[in-house]
Design goal:
With 644 residues, the protein is α+β, with helices and mostly antiparallel strands. The protein is 49% helix and 13% strand. The two termini are 32 Å apart. Keywords: Antiport, Membrane, Transmembrane, Transmembrane helix, Transport.
Length: 644
């Protein structure tokens, strides 16, 4: 291959080897992957453990620690670009991520919705859109001071960011956290407690609760539903589904499942962040290396709405999603819910994950004293009074399965009360290992997936060896005893990885921008923004598929607010306070970034008009409009480089 010739700064030509392009592109791609993996697989779970240990309220943790974890790629790219490489790529990454989140994540959420539309909670929508609009306004004001550098009056204009503008950005985020913390009280005060969605009808079943039903205040009685208490019930209803399920009568039933069938799960919630590089959603990829396959996954034997019932043995089996204890503080997470195949016998509950060799990762659940359910959202909470045991939150894929599971739980409560037996759990089981290892070989997967695995193996192995995983649990589903100490160590190591990954991303993209003679800000708005925002898109799409579309949309706006107020406000505040000692920061060239901020504002106005006109309901046609707008934005961002 011939060398690529580009014009140099002196008017001549400089030969650049194709391997330079390949190396820089590979470095940027790997840095995107590593930042996403470190964030989702290590950083967020560790922060979640710390938040649980110190009993940080869900709303506060979600708006602070968990928001910092989820948006860490944008935050660290901004810090690296500001303090190390001194470029506008960090600012461009944040601005580009804002537009991507608002348009593409919202479009993906509504397209993945169960009933082809999303009903948004008006109070949450007003809060998130309101603070985002305020952050866009403050960002525009902070960037509005642009003039030539006094040392180079004939040179390009620079943007001047003052200490007070930066401090105002960061200060508004503190107000945002306070509003999130006391949001229910604020809404109740403004609406006299009549706003729909603040309280939801929940039922309490079981022998200890005497099967009573009552209207339970979710923040008081069911705080584990932090992410669902504002979720409209309409988002959990599928437009067309087999609510009755398909019952399979079998003669024998074991923990590993029943009769085998060639079928697929219609959707999955807890696919790994790596899944979007190989396969995603239903696992229908071409099989290879069959000699490595030991058995099929449960989802390859049963459809999502299938269940098995052995009347003679009193055994009932079905799919349920189980809330991860390591992501319960997150507003949204790809691994927040795990699809597991549950088996209910006359005296116990057990489950296995939806992956290969699942018998090595079985959970046997401790005895619980009662259950709390939300019948509209198909949620079930298994409650125990033992402080050494945690409660479990389950979600059924259909109303029929939900009712059958509740019935089986009540039968178990009656059995345990009558037997008055000591709790017996199979402690000889292997470590349940809530999540697959980063270095676990994908046996039986497609050739493409295995190739990707081999390419990423050196990086995954290094990550696996240097950053501890807090998500190892016992066969009872309980985290290990020293998990808090491990979490703090994991956070420190994650910060180091994120700094290195962000530097590799920023540096490689800046070099690519130089080779293509494109401003750093434009590369940040396009390539860097998409690369750092893809994990959020995957998580939001998964959430919408399971009925949490309102949460996905609000998370998109919440991430945007964090990116502006903290991702830009905090580094600028620190730099102007300690780097320039109070003088304005003027290291950013005016490369059209203000125009992109105006585009952000315009898109936001369009979104508000749509939501007012549709009474806070997003339809599929909204998604196509959003995707068209994002395409136009990319054309504009790239075109202004070559047409100016």
């Amino acid at each position: 291959m011939d060398d690529i010739a580009i014009e140099g700064g002196g008017g001549g030509e400089t030969s650049v080897s194709p391997w330079v392009w390949i190396g820089l592109s590979f470095t940027a791609t790997i840095s995107f992957y590593l930042q996403a993996t470190v964030t989702e697989e290590r950083f967020v779970p560790a922060l979640n453990v710390i938040a649980n240990h110190f009993n940080i309220p869900d709303d506060v943790a979600g708006a602070t620690l968990m928001a910092a974890g989820a948006s860490s790629p944008e935050l660290f790219s901004s810090i690296v670009a500001l303090f190390i490489t001194h470029s506008a790529l960090g600012l461009g990454t944040v601005v580009g991520s804002e537009i991507f989140n608002q348009l593409i994540i919202c479009a993906g959420a509504v397209l993945a919705a169960r009933n082809n539309c999303l009903h948004l909670d008006k109070a949450i929508l007003i809060r998130e859109v309101g603070f985002y609009a305020l952050s866009v306004l403050l960002l525009y004001l902070a960037l509005s001071d642009h003039r030539p550098d006094p040392d180079d009056p004939d040179g390009p204009e620079h943007i001047y960011v003052s200490f007070y503008d930066a401090l105002l950005l960061f200060g508004v985020y503190i107000i945002y956290v306070l509003v999130c913390s006391y949001f229910d009280n604020v809404v109740s005060f403004l609406t006299t407690g009549k706003l729909q969605g603040i309280a939801s009808k929940a039922d309490s079943y079981g022998t200890f609760s005497r099967a009573s039903q009552a209207n339970i205040s979710l923040p008081e009685k069911m705080s584990y539903m932090m992410e669902t208490k504002h979720e409209p019930e309409e988002n959990f209803v599928e437009k067309s589904t087999n609510e009755d399920g398909r019952e399979k009568q079998v003669l024998r039933m074991t923990i590993s499942g029943g009769a085998k069938e060639s079928s697929r799960t219609s959707s999955r919630f807890a696919e790994s962040i790596r899944s979007f590089v190989g396969k995603f959603s239903d696992g229908a990829s071409t099989r290879a290396f069959q000699f490595l396959v030991h058995e099929e996954k449960p989802s390859e034997q049963h459809d999502l709405h299938d269940f098995e019932f052995d009347e003679f043995a009193e055994v009932f089996s079905c799919f349920l999603w189980q809330r991860s204890v390591f992501y319960n503080k997150s507003r949204i997470a790809t691994n927040g819910w795990h699809l597991r195949w549950f088996t209910f016998t006359h005296d116990k509950i057990a489950s296995v994950p939806d992956r290969k060799q699942y018998e090595k990762h079985n959970l046997t659940y401790p005895h619980f004293e009662h259950i709390e359910v939300d019948s509209s959202r198909l949620l079930i909470k298994l409650v125990t009074s033992d402080p050494k045991k945690r409660n479990y939150v389950l979600m059924a894929p259909s109303k029929n399965i939900f009712l059958r599971v509740v019935s089986k739980c009540e039968e178990l409560l009656i059995f345990w009360e009558n037997e008055n037996s000591e709790e017996a759990v199979d402690l000889s089981s292997h470590d349940a290992d809530d999540e697959p290892s980063l270095i676990e070989f994908p046996s039986g997967e497609s050739v493409f997936t295995i190739i990707i695995y081999l390419i990423l193996l050196p990086f995954n192995l290094l990550l696996h060896l240097t950053v501890p995983d807090v998500r190892h649990i016992s066969a009872e589903g309980d985290p290990r005893s020293n998990v808090v100490t491990v979490a703090f160590l994991a956070v420190v190591m994650c910060l180091l990885w994120l700094i290195v990954g962000s530097y590799a991303m920023v540096s490689s993209l800046e070099h690519l921008a130089d080779l293509m003679e494109i401003p750093d800000a434009v590369v940040g708005i396009t390539v860097s923004a998409v690369g750092t925002s893809l994990p959020n898109y995957v998580a939001s799409k998964c959430a919408a598929q399971q009925g949490f579309g309102n949460m996905a949309v609000s998370n998109a706006f919440g991430s945007n607010t964090f990116n502006i107020l903290v991702g830009l406000g905090l580094p600028w505040t620190l730099y102007t306070a300690f780097g320039t000692h109070g003088a304005p920061y003027h290291g950013l060239r005016n490369e059209g970034i203000l125009n992109s901020v105006l585009v952000m504002a315009t898109v936001l106005v369009i979104f508000i008009i749509f939501m007012v006109a549709s009474n806070a309901v997003m339809y599929r046609w909204h998604a196509f409009v959003f995707m068209a707008l994002y395409t136009l934005f990319l054309v504009y961002a790239i075109g202004q480089v070559y047409l100016s």
